[in-house]
Design a protein that fits this description.
The longest helix is centred in the C-terminal third of the chain and has 33 residues. The protein is α/β, with parallel strands linked by helices. The protein folds into three domains: about 80 residues, no CATH class; about 200 residues, Type I PLP-dependent aspartate aminotransferase-like (Major domain) (Aspartate Aminotransferase, domain 2), CATH 3.40.640; about 120 residues, Aspartate Aminotransferase, domain 1 (Alpha-Beta Complex), CATH 3.90.1150. α5 packs across α13 and α6 crosses α13. About 45% of the residues lie in helices and about 10% in strands. Strands 1-7-6-5-4-2-3 form a seven-stranded mixed beta sheet, with helices on both faces. Strands 8-9-11-10 form a four-stranded antiparallel beta sheet. It contains 16 helices and eleven strands.
Length: about 500
């Protein structure tokens, strides 16, 4: 070898490892100190702030060609990124259903990145940890011991995987080999008019088309109308279609409504259909001391999607798809080329996790869930779930006591839909008023809400999936909405009066 090197011109060898490990150690310690202070003091910071133009300009700079000191790179992150987050770790972030992260999970992501394992599979510790986390998820929601599962980027992907297994099982052919065009009958999937938009994307991605997903009307509590569903299934059978899958909500995205899971499980069994439960919002109610009674029938699903980055507060991102029939799950995705064949020992002797989903390259998402559950225990997370539900009911009670606020539907779990309505306004005016209240709350850094429309009526939406929220935060929210609403009414009155004077 030395002789070869002597005869061949060899370029200087480089690495991304630091030349000065001591300096990097000092920099890393500063990062940890700043990160802990960031979370410790998050309550004192705005719930959201816009990114200034000067910062936006720096993010439009061209590709760096040469190096910068690590200390300078970290300074730029501290200056230009950390002060302008989405805000979901803040105690008054209640916009979209996200969870609020935790320090242990953040440390886990750092350690996972340091280890650098690819969770496509193999014989190494990260694979064992992911398999254990999947088992824990299965245990938490009451799935049988032989059920299969995989971790994903989140609920959208978890739902896609579950619906893909449903399509393949119910297609009536070897769909992987022959494709959807060879199906003897077009498949139909059914969900309520409150299902998440990811289901439309999934059905379209599966090649079935949006028309294959029938939206069934809901009752007064925004739960799927089981009688209407039964009628739709019969109608489609009579038309020569094949009813294949019921998509049930264990927590609808708009209101948190939970479908009658037991009734849907019975109907699916009666009709020889697949039952998929979208539990990304409410599946983890199963571990709550009080909330578990809201999701009977959860464990009867053929497949279920849930999100540990919501009520387990894992840092983004991590979802989970569970499938009762492990053989069907593996058969839907497994493909073993020669370069990924297993071996009797060594690294290739482990489990090939990529055979249960679409990704071959997979990050070590499991560690942040594993470490947080080890540290706090499932019972603590269950109590936090009940705490959020009680906080939502508290907010609903505050709304009901105020003449200018209207509760749009009872809080099923931890989502509260309400609006500012002083009376005498038409629907467009109410929408404009509430949208402005929502935006001013955000721009002031007070709180972050989202909005939605229920039965044609616009409203504000507070999704309390936050372990840092306190009852005093909800008191502040209501008082600020009332204050802003009153100010906007006065501003509007002044504008109307000015317009009248100008037309005289």
């Amino acid at each position: 070898m030395e002789a070869v090197r002597a005869d061949v011109e060899v370029a200087a060898e480089e690495s991304l490892d630091p030349a000065d490990w001591f300096a990097v150690t000092e920099a890393a310690h500063r990062v940890v100190d700043e990160a802990i202070a960031y979370l410790r003091d998050v309550r004192t910071q705005p719930a959201w702030r816009d990114v200034p133009a000067v910062v936006r300009e720096r993010f439009a700079e061209p590709l760096p060609r040469g190096p910068q000191p690590l200390a300078e790179v970290l300074r730029l992150v501290s200056q230009d990124a950390m002060p302008y987050p989405m805000g979901n770790v803040h105690p008054r972030f209640w916009a979209w259903y996200m969870g609020s992260s935790n320090l242990t999970g953040a440390l886990a992501d750092f350690l996972a990145a340091i280890q650098g394992s690819n969770l496509g599979g193999g014989n190494h510790a990260a694979v064992l940890i992911e398999r254990q986390v999947i088992d824990w998820c299965r245990e938490m929601v009451g799935f049988p011991a032989g059920a299969s599962g995989t971790l994903t980027s989140g609920g959208s992907m978890a739902n896609l995987l579950g619906l893909t297994v449903a399509r393949n099982v119910k297609a009536g052919i070897d769909i992987r080999e022959q494709g959807v065009a060879a199906m003897p009958k077009p498949l139909r999937f059914y969900g309520s008019d409150q299902i998440h938009s990811c289901h439309r994307k999934a059905i379209e991605t599966l090649g079935l088309g949006n028309q294959a997903l029938r939206r069934i009307e809901t009752d007064a509590a925004f739960r799927i109308d089981v009688s209407a569903l039964r009628a739709a299934i019969a109608q489609d059978r009579a038309a020569g279609l094949k009813p294949a899958c019921i998509i049930a909500n264990a927590g609808a995205v708009n209101t948190g409504a939970i479908d009658d899971l037991e009734a849907l499980a019975d109907l699916a069994a009666e009709e020889d259909m697949w039952l998929h439960i979208d539990g990304c919002i409410g599946a983890l109610l199963a571990i709550a001391p009080l909330g578990h009674q809201l999701v009977p029938g959860l464990g009867r699903a053929d497949s279920l999607a849930l999100d540990p980055h919501k009520w387990l507060h894992a840092p983004f991102d991590v979802g989970c798809c569970l499938v009762r029939d492990a053989v069907a799950h593996h058969g839907t995705f497994a493909a073993t080329p020669e370069y990924l064949e297993s071996a009797p020992r060594g690294l290739p002797s482990g489990h090939w996790l990529h055979e249960f989903g679409l990704q071959t390259s997979r990050g070590f998402r499991a560690l942040k869930v594993w470490m947080a559950l080890k540290e706090h225990g499932a019972e603590k997370f269950g109590r936090l779930i009940d705490q959020n539900i009680h906080q939502a009911h508290y907010l609903a009670s505050l709304v009901e006591k105020e003449r200018r606020l209207t509760l749009m539907t009872p809080a099923a779990i931890n989502i509260v839909c309400f609006r500012y309505d002083p009376g005498g306004l038409d629907e467009p005016a109410i929408k404009a008023l509430n949208t402005e209240i929502m935006l001013r709350l955000q721009e002031a850094g007070t709180a972050v809400l989202s909005d939605t429309t229920l039965r044609g009526k616009h409203c504000l939406r507070a999704a309390i999936c936050n372990h840092r929220t306190r009852y005093s935060d909800l008191d502040l929210l209501v008082s600020e909405i009332l204050r802003l609403g009153g100010e906007l009414e006065k501003e509007d009155a002044v504008s109307v009066d000015r317009a009248r004077r100008e037309t005289r």
